[in-house]
Amino acid sequence: MLVSHTLHWWQKEIIYQVYPRSFKDTSGNGIGDLRGITQKAVYFQWLGVKAVWLSPVYPSPMKDFGYDISDYCNIHPTLGTMEDFDNLLHELHERGIKLIMDLVPNHTSDVHEWFMESRKSKDNPKRDWYIWADPADSGGPPNNWRSEFGGSAWELDSQTGQYYCHSFLKEQPDLNWFNPEVREAMWEVMRFWLNKGVDGFRVDVLWYLIKDRLLRNNPPNPDWEEGMPDHDKLITAFSNDQPEVHDVVEEMRRVVDEYPNRLIIGEIYLPVDKLVMYYGKEPDTGVHLPFNFHLVSTEWDAQQINKLISEYEGALPAGGWPNWVLGNHDKSRIKARVGEDQLFNAALLLLTLRGTPTMYYGDELGMNDVEIPPEKIQDPREFREPGIGVGRDPQRTPMQWNNSKNAGFTNHDPWLPVGADYQTNNVDSLMENQHGLLQFYHDLIALRQKEPALHGGSFHPVGVQNQLLCYRRQHEQSAFFIALNLGKEETSFTPSFKWRGVVEIASNPKRKGKKIENTIHVNGNDGLLIRITGNSEAG
Ligand code: NOJ
């Protein structure tokens, strides 16, 4: 059994994602910046956040809001300077908070100097750094691959008559990861930031790095229907998750392991069986945390979530540490997905499952997807496939700090509209509300940090009754019973073992401190975290 002092920081602590453009503007241009994040370091400290992941802050033409990088070793002037970055890192470290950078190795911006060289001629030394191919025999793109953002994944370069591959926008050409020089260049980028003292990387679309060498066509997706994203027309059998990607991951891990105590998280949207391959064939040869996004896509239903947890726990390789994500800058907010009534349960689930939780800024306030008027749309996904729900602006709106104009985010026009609920749903107001969601997160995080059973203990499914999901966490003699009613109906449940306990944290404050023996009654939408004080099964 793991004890807390043998756990790494990234196992014990929660990770908090900051979308820098939307966190806090100090320069007065309506866009968040690095100084703003530094200013809010005290907030992380108050909340109990010990690791912050920043979405990209590098120079970029912002075609995909920073995921199109034109210089990997610098800071975008709108967000600040390298000095601002160094200050941020220093301020976070002073407070015992780690900093995780976003690394985007699959593609660069089309104005990155590597690509500008590569496109010059077929015999340019950097030609092979990207994926170039001749037109198909019948003319047109080399194969049928689709961009994640709709349309062909190939763009014709008229100067040389060849196509280049782009899994996202045409302004985001894909690097050729079969080329050892590309790998070496990216390892140098990593070392640049690691030498500065950053604590790790979240690696963008890790499963995309290697594509089929023969560029074979993807098969059609028989489940595709009108109204679904264009990209889903095909099954991505050949355009991502190829076997050789694991060699790349292994090399990447070795670079991070040149430095003590660092972390790599992989962004990977794959079914559980394929996802867990990214832990590596042998222990310590893959990423530490292949992001587990399955809570984002699984129906909010006790049976389904229970099944997901066992499938995931059962699939983890020896030494593979679990992790859970409820939201990010690409997905509809948790509130929009499960509704206001379930937000306390969502927090309880994320923070009491076994493994590292990742929170998305503002979810702790219950920030909602914000409706974006047509003239305010920013996201290229929405422009390319309008009206089918793929736009990501609604979940990227400014952090709601207080009830002053623009929620205290900026004193200018914000780059995206502020949520209409900011007068009540904001950090300052919620800090005053002992029974609100923010205090609930605060208390839960504090308890999770204090209790080895919650941050490092074993996980035991207990049962599902109607919509009531029950499980137990245990470390030595200390144990907790978690009961989450994901439905609206009151439900009772009696586990097969005798037990008693005291409610430690509850979505309904009236239940706090109450004793429970054997049978548990939970009102609709309520959730309880109960300290077990006696248990016939586990002592
Ligand atoms: C995944 C990122 O999370 C998303 O925001 C971005 O558009 C794509 N990768 C392309 O980099």
CATH class of the domain at 458-534: Mainly Beta
* Number of H- or I-type helical stretches: 16
CATH topology of the domain at 458-534: Immunoglobulin-like
Taking all residues together, what is the mean pLDDT? 97
Number of strands: 19
Helix content: 10-25%
User: What is the end-to-end distance?
Assistant: 16 Å
What percent strand? 15-25%
Q: Which overall shape is indicated by the principal axes computed on the Cα atoms?
A: globular
Strand order of the largest sheet: 9-8-7-3-2-1-11-10
Under the CATH scheme, the architecture of the domain at 458-534 is: Sandwich
User: Major β-sheet, in short?
Assistant: 8 strands, parallel
Determine Rg (CA atoms, Å).
Answer: 24 Å
CATH superfamily of the domain at 458-534: Golgi alpha-mannosidase II
Low-confidence segments, given as residue ranges, are none
Task: Give a description of the structure.
This protein is an alpha/beta fold and 539 residues long. The protein has a domain at 458-534: Immunoglobulin-like, CATH 2.60.40. 24% of the residues lie in helices and 17% in strands. It has 16 helices and 19 strands. A hairpin with a 2-residue loop joins strand 12 (458-465) and strand 13 (468-475). Helix 6 runs parallel beside helix 7 and helix 12 (343-352) packs parallel to helix 15. 50% of the residues are buried. 1-deoxynojirimycin (NOJ) is lined by residues 64, 67, 104, 168, 204-205, 267, 329-330.
